[in-house]
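Weekly structure sync, notes
Attendees: PL (lead), two postdocs, one rotation student
Agenda item 3: pending single-chain targets
PL asked that the sequence for the first pending target be pasted directly into the notes so everyone works from the same version. It is reproduced below exactly as submitted, 221 residues in total.
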Amino acid sequence: MNQDDYNSNFGVKDKYSKTLKAAFNQVSDIRKFEIELYWKRATYFWALIAVAFAGYFSILSSENIPSKFFLSFMVSCIGSVFTFAWFLSSRGSKYWQENWENHLDLLEDEITGPLYKTLLERPVHENLAEKFITGPMSISVSKVNQWVCFFILLIWVLLISFSTYNSLCSLDLQLNKWFKIIMYISIFILTFLSCFMMLNYGKTHKKKHSPKVVVRETEIE
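Predicted structure, written out during the meeting:
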C-alpha cells in the first residue's frame, strides 16, 4: 500500500468523509487504550518480579532451609523468565502504540490539522539547573521502562550465577553432586528455552488471515 492507496481507503483528502472521521476517532481511542494497557501490563509484571525478588532473598537469608542455593537458583530462573516476558511484552506494546500513532499522524490533517505532529518546545533554557535538572527533556517514557527491564534482567543473570557458584561449592557426596548438576543444567535449559520460544514464536502474525467461518443456528422448537 502506498500513500495514494492509504488516502483512498480512509478518505484522507476529504474532510467531510465519514470514513475519515470514524477512522480518526477509532484510532484516537485505540491509542489511548494501548497506552493504558501498556502500564497495566507493566504493573502486572512488576508484581511478579517483586515476589520473585522477595522469595530469592528470603531463601538466602534463612538458616533452616536445606539446599537453599539450589532453591534460590530456581527462583532466580523463574524471575528471569518473568522479566524477559515483561521485556518482550513492553516491546510488543510499543509496536502497537506506534502503529496507532502513525495512523493518527496520517489521518489528523483534515480533522484537527497537524496537531499531534506539532511539538511546542522551549527555545532555550534559562540556566544550567533548568537545562539538566528541572527543565523538560525529549525522553521516551516507554523506552526508559524498557531499559529498566533490561537492567533487571542482567541482575537476574548475576543472581543465577551467584546461586550456581555457591551451590556447586557446597556439594559433598558424589551422587548428590551429579544429581544437582543435572538439575541445574535442566532448569537452565528450560529457562533458556522458555525465553527462546517467547522471542521466536510469540511474534505478531502478519501474514494473510484466512479464518474458518462457522455459523451457529439457533431456533425455538
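Discussion points:
- The mean pLDDT is 82.
- The CA atoms of residues 70 and 183 lie 9 Å apart.
Action: rotation student to compare against the earlier draft before next sync.
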